[in-house]
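[stage:ingest] chain + small molecule (phosphoenolpyruvate)
[stage:ingest] validated
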Amino acid sequence: MRQPLVAGNWKMNGSRASVAELLAGLKSGINQVTAAEVAVCAPAIYLPAVQADLDGTSIKWGGQDVSAHASGAYTGEIAGSMLADFGCHFVIIGHSERRAYHAESDQAVAEKFTAARAAGLVPILCVGETLEEREGGITEEVVARQLDAVIAHCGIDVVGEGVIAYEPVWAIGTGKTATPEQAQEVHAFIRGRLAASSQAVADGMRILYGGSMNPKNAAELIAQADIDGGLIGGASLKADDFLAVCSAANR
Ligand code: PEP
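[stage:predict] done
[stage:export] tokens:
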């Protein structure tokens, strides 16, 4: 039985005041979430504040990116050990915005996955196709390539220590959600791809859906056989909306 996971991706949003308000709202409503594991992935500079506020609660936290390197002359980067130092449990790896705006290759993403595990973090590996790729009929090819690069680099057992987020790029921040059937089809494909290397990893792996998930569509998406929760962008910035998405996994 896979416990659902709902993780918020705040992206580059917030201020000290809005982070404090959001965390207070989450803490006061988290009791309504009975089934899902809940986490927030905050901008790195707010992680000390997140740790101070969430320590001792059931809500976990994480970073949005990590360096592939352990330490050294990498100006501006943040090492996995630094995220761990501030109590991070998760880290998002290979988000489509990093692949698109920072030219992160499949190989770079795979190296970051390894670095995250070396620091004891649970990587949330994002995969997903663009609209052009979907319309070109190569969704599975793209997702398989992104996944296989990490399996080849880290090995299937290390991949199994993480979480996968299927995030069709055309659905991120656009208000266009994949239908539950469209999402389920790709999630089942991903699980099958994992099973080709290890049935145990495939059975245990949590595969989240991400892309305009909100309180209205979350329950139907999470009800799909291979959808084990969500990675939530826009709807994670309001406590009530995020808690409603988290509660969609309640049984
Ligand atoms: C994301 O950025 O991971 C995401 C899913 O964003 P949104 O929910 O805003 O589409």
